[in-house]
Amino acid sequence: MAQKSPKPLVAGNWKMNGTTASLREARLLAGMLKGVRLKCEVMICPPATLISTIKPVFKGTRIRLGGQDCHGQANGAHTGDISAEMLADVGCGAVIVGHSERRTDHGETDETVRMKAEAAHRAGLIAIICIGETLAHRKNGETLAVISRQLAGSVPEGANAANTVIAYEPVWAIGTGLTPTTVEVAEVHASIRTKTDPDMRILYGGSVKPANAAELMAVTNVNGALVGGASLKAADFIGIIKAYA
Ligand code: PGA
Asked: CATH code at 106?
């Protein structure tokens, strides 16, 4: 496949999955990527508890580490939270912000997400900003309006192609095995593109599997994938990476 510009990113979001036993999958992935000529960047966002343990496993590979969330402040009295500076300190190069599970479980608003993205930039991390419509939005024909509102509210002023990635993740496609049609994906990505730098990566996320990765990657303005469930097994994740390689 001809190389797409900008350089695609395939990021695995392990969510609240993984203990030290999962190092086995991390080692398998590192091994499988040896000798593979990659045309995409590869990242794993493990739970925060595993970042330091996985770091040596990925040393010398091209797999980068990312966090799954960060607080807007650099430090302070915020029990249980983790700052962007802390993620940078343990070797992360990026952090996911505004994932729909955070927006739903923790009531995060576009404004919270924007502050988190600003925190990521302040710490020198790439902010992977997630946006996406619910099934009700889609059924009501509100998808593009919702996406536009989320972009306007969640993406900070200083965002550029070097420090920000947008991840379009329809809420109804996450963990369900359902995906929008490629026409629907193209429509949303084209709409996002009109509001972003031409070199800013726009990932698609939501039930990306080895079987549909190539088809999704071929869509105009899809510059990679944010992968949940299928990133937990090295054999599945490598299947997705190869669709981009
Ligand atoms: P999924 O999750 O691949 O399991 O659908 C995607 C995500 O939430 O990033």
From this structure: 3.20.20.70
